[in-house]
Amino acid sequence: MDGTTRVEEALSGAIERALTAAVSSVATPGAPPRLAAALRYAVFPGGARIRPRLCLAVACSCGDDEPGAADAAACALEFLHCASLVHDDLPCFDDAPLRRGKPSVHRAFGERLAVLTGDALIVLAFQTLARGLATNPARLASLMMIVARSVGMPTGIVAGQARECEPSADLAQYQREKTGALFAAATMAGAAAAGVDPGPWRTLGEKLGEAFQVADDLHDATGDEAALGKPVGRDVALDRPSAVRSLGVEGAIAHLNQLVSEAAQSIPPCPGADGLKELIIMETARFLPRELWQRAA
Predict the structure, then answer these.
(1) What is the CATH number of the domain that holds 202?
(2) Closest CA to 217 of 240, 201, 193, 200
């Protein structure tokens, strides 16, 4: 097992422990039982946890001096991501029957509880931040603003979702808001949690977010529903903006490769820059559908 793999495993373990503790703090015996169950269902078992992993990796690379702050930020980002998935899957948006290989929350618990689950996860994100940084108000204020901007108006994931409700949408802007915003928050929050200026870390997150969205478009156009654990072909069915629809499969693959290269080159100077670059390249290798890797080489 190489060093990067050990770091990845350590990050994964830290994230799952922190998420479990945060969910357990609100899904208590006094909570509405079905809502508590739906909240756990939406978070566990998780997907790749890319955003919280990125947050912790950046914090570590910046010489993390307050791990509790980074853990809280990583959890907040994952809860917001899970909330967005619950809401995306609702009948009024994608009407998706599956998520992560199991029935989506509204299929398993009903539409009303799905709406409330997404709402509860959004609130839990900020509860977790407040609890994790109660003794460090200066960093808390910075992290609150970074995370809130990534979700709300005018350019967060809510705005990105709203682009689907407009008569037309610019693809780059749509991807920047719906996906890139939370990735940018992950890199910036990791730096801020470690007490480092978050500004220079925005570009890394934006590039990785755009790369992830391009890869998601490729999965939707070429992937297998059983392997992905979610429906495919939704971009065409719902007439959504897509890198594949705009650039074709080959063009989308070339664009993804360019974005990953630009992301790796954008890492600001920090004690762990070399290790972070290696980790990012390994993580982004998971973006593309396996059958497309030979065409991407």
Answers:
(1) 1.10.600.10
(2) 240
